[in-house]
Amino acid sequence: ILEDTDGDGRADKVTTFADKLNIPMGILPTAGGVICFNIPDIVFLRDNDGDDKADERIKILGPFDTTRDTHGMVNGMRRGPDGWIYACHGFNNQSNVTAKDGSNVKMISGNTFRFREDGSRVEQWTTGQVNPFGLAADDWGNLYSADCHSKPITALLHGGCYPSFGRPHDGLGFAPSMMDHLHGSTAICGLIFYQAEQFPQAFQNRFYSGNVMTSRINCNAIERQAATVTARELPDFMTSDDPWFRPVDIQLGPDGAMYVADFYNKIIGHYEVPLQHPGRDRESGRIWRIVYRGKNGANALQSLTEYQKQVFDVATLSPVDLAELGSTNLTRRELAIERERQTELPASKLDVARQMMLAEKTPELERLSCLSILWSR
Question: Is residue 188 assigned to a domain?
Fold first, then answer.
């Protein structure tokens, strides 16, 4: 757990929540702890006493196959607006996983799937892709993935089948691609749809993806024609002349900042040199916080510490708190949807919140507010 205790935009407190994990590349904070992929299972690391230490490890789903590849497995876990948890299944492995209710998924190499938080059910979402690494949702709740070897961004249509190293389609044909350009790399990792007001308007409502091979953060505009979405290539959002810069994950913070996990390593592949090669750096990973400071350098950004002070107890939600359902920040709306779902508030209270959100707001915010309320019900 990395905390900024003084609000200066830098983490100054580090707490080890859990250790001795096996390649935990997929994590999702949730009420009472963290859901984590810990080879070979998805587990719940539960903090029973609120001391920021995991006291229990409870198996949710698994085992997943890791006999063919250990580094390209379950990742990108994110909660959908419907309450399910969505995730990617990475390259090469062949997993056969059964949930508590007997539901079963069989996944060969790249796939996406979803499961209930208690492990009661699992379902396939899409088939195909090669090595999806990172999931994002847009302002409508549509899902997208980043993939290392097929397309940098893929619109995930439920039940869709996507190309994967020459494998045949499912008989109905492949789902449509939303882009032709590849950003000059076979190592795309991490994806967000930026919807917040901290960045200037020209940088809002854009996809940002990590390009591990070229040490860049790529940018794409989303264009919609009826139900069809396409990605239009824009100039790179960030470039680095440091060849060790390896952006492997990107997140939109509730404060409007972009957070980038940087693997920071000279060697990035398992196939280039032996795993014990002295050139592999094992200490220098970094997390960057990217903010817009304005033309005069003044930082008008609310600090993450200030935002955390506003976080409310889900048991005492008020209509004012529920106004977060209409936030212009996508992450804050998603958090508000989940908090409301946990409380199971009556429709009458949500209707009051809706009226508050619609007051003095634009048609676009009205759309976002109504969408959030529909999902939270």
Answer: yes
